[in-house]
Amino acid sequence: MSLPQQTLSELRRLLGAANVLTEKEDLIPYSFDGTAALQQMPGCVVFARTREEVVGVLQLANRTRAAVVTRGSGTGLSGGSLPSPDCIVLCLAKMDRIVELDRANLTLLAEAGATTQAIADATSAAGLFYPPDPGSMKISTIGGNVAENSGGLRGLKYGVTRNYVMGLEVVLPDGEVLWTGNKCVKDVAGYSLRDLFIGSEGTLGVITRVLLKLIPKPAAKKTLVATFARMDQAAQTVSDIIAAQIIPCTLEFLDRTTIHCVEDFAKVGLPLDCEALLLMETDGHPGPVNEEAARMEEIARKNAAVDVRVARDDAEATRLATARRSAFSALARVSPTTILEDATVPRSELAGMIRFVAAVAAKYKLRVGTFGHMGDGNLHPTFLTDERNHDEMHRVEEAFKEIFDEAIRLGGTITGEHGIGVSKKSFLPKFAGDAQMRVMRELRRALDPNGILNPGKMFDP
Amino acid sequence: MSSAVSHLKGLDYSVVQQCMHCGLCLPTCPTYDATKMERHSPRGRISLMRAIADGRLEVTHAFADEMYFCLGCLACMSACPAGVNYAELFEHARAEAECSGVLKSPRRNLIRAVAIRWLFMDLSHLRLAGRVIRLYQQLGLQTLLRRSGVLKLLPKRLQELESITPDIQPRFSAQLIAPVTPASGRKKYRVAMLTGCAQDLIFSDVNRDTVEVLARNGCEVVTPPRQLCCGSLHAHNGEWGMAQELARQQIEQFPPDQFDAIISNAGGCGSHLKHYHKLLADDPAYRERAVLWDKKVKDIHEWLMEIGIQPPAGPAPAQVVTYHESCHLAHGQKITAQPRQLLSLIPNLKLVELPESTWCCGSAGIYNIVQPDMANQLLDRKLKHIQSTGASIVANGNSGCLLQLINGAKQKGLNLRVAHPVTLLAEAYRNARGRR
Questions:
Q1: Sign of the dihedral defined by the CA atoms of residues A366, A371, A373, A375, in that order
Q2: What is the interface pTM, i.e. ipTM, of the complex?
């Protein structure tokens, strides 16, 4: 059941022929996102450049009951922008203007297709700071970040995308345009619909503009790298830092496998003879920054750190953070398929969870590289496998089931920052429970009665 | 259906599978940046290659076109954390496109026969063509024809080509460089000098400067007068067999065990020259020598910084230079620091960083000839950045880029000198000796 010719000609009339792709060679490159081992051919790919065009596409789709999957740069890690069969992929990558940077109110208004990097750069040029920094920030779009409520390396101190969204322009499935939020720091008028759309994974509406909160750029920062002979020493260091009431902006860890892959790519001089590496960054005013850095170094040494190194300058600090951001992709060096998840547990349970992941990997005879945001309990266990090896892929699935169960048991979540999409769809009911599932279904039905937006994602009607 | 061996299916599948489509290549790809279309991105192209390897897609005209829309700049390889060997994939994909014959047309076949087979398989033909063009330029014919407006009668593409035809040097490398140039002072190394193909006609002076600088720093330089093309043109244009043949001949002409280094001063050639072991992996007679060859091939900047050179003595006129990186030097060979180090050794020369220094200028081998629109967009972008630095000289280590920039500066009427870093270094040495 492919898209009817009439729908395609209508789309061409709406958007211009150059913005409607239907050839096989054009569609194959849109048949996946950043998620491993998932592929599905769309019916067409269309580019909208204005809100009015998005309205037109949704009205048409709603009238003809065509499925619409919204896409930014396609870097998601849960299959959120994976096409549904023969759908219209609505790509917003060409709607990428930064509309306004308001220095008086410390806000930035951007179109959905603006990249996170472009926003970070524009903000930084004005002496301000937009903290969320997902691993794919160089190309990920702000619309996608909001739809997935993306996290990043600075979540521990600064929070995630949700904490910086002040307003949204959303096109509803029937084409009506909705604005939610404004430049006021305080606003309690009605339900916070804004919060409903954040993290809605393209199931409730199409986000076309985002109003972001900015904060002053920290005057100083200090980056440290500590290495350990055992993973639990690193975990203990993190627990001790939090217990000492220090909230650094970044507390990232890499295990041995990940360290080797990252160093192989980034060549930033990571030590290769250790089991765990902590990347720690503190920022703020110079005085407290130096003080915190010194205390973190002391805590690491107390926990038998083999070495603690302080980045010489900003450039080295940036290189280290960039290297860490490449961890997931770099792991692909050692195996054909890399499947990563983002199970998250309360920080107090972290050391136990890391041991559990290692034990599960051993039980199912799987290679695993684990890294992640140790400071906020957000782990990225990554299985190194080969999608053509069906037996091993089955074991990967079984292993993830156990890991998710354990995360739930420990009071954690099945996804800290990647979203449900299709990857974790089957785990959501158990995690969310009946009442939440019912409310989510009813909300979705109320907003999208014809089920045209991202069908098959998150949960079924 | 062509019965030819499918080059992509023949590839080790893990090379295709290495791409985990994370998208980190997208912001570094000039064609994606310009179009925002996944098909024109590295991961998009790889997904098409994989579809062919999987049998989900035939080799179509659109596929072949796409492979030739790629600049082959390899910026994606520097960006790729997963270590995808895009260079290998891309060469195989173009070979596959050629094999399938989907692009065949009488005009294209003729151009390829003349350019790739006749001119560049035997460089005496290229030199002959060079002499003819030189005559055309020297006898005033060019000026005459350009003024007369007769050229306007030519098809637009030919007019454009005529306008970017480079100035041919009055003397080629063999007339400027002795077969053996002794080291000045104590001989520490024996090196071979590859004079290249187009380089030999258009930048024979850069070749001479390279030999001068090498000799000045303790190298005895062997420069045979009759040399070969390195074969990168062939490998990048789907002619795998010819590229292999040229690699064998190169190894015969310069047995790698007889030299401390085999020097290339063109980033694009060097990048290809360092991968003969891949080309000849299945040839037992050459396999081992190819491995040694790859180790001995050195880019001139790389070699000079490795052996440590004597800095030229001052004084010299104060000048500002910026450095545009050749894609295949930066992304293909990962040589980025050495050319800057070399420039910074020149007295009174101030190096100003070029914004987007590793972004392709659009030259990309013969890309500026076959894809003029995209090439010109990239050239404009590059020239704007160069102008923003305020430099009066732009340095670059690859003949294709040098030509592209010279043409760009000429078209825009910019007062900008385009020079190979080695030329600037050679001038500084000459200056110091007061013999300019």
A1: positive
A2: 0.95
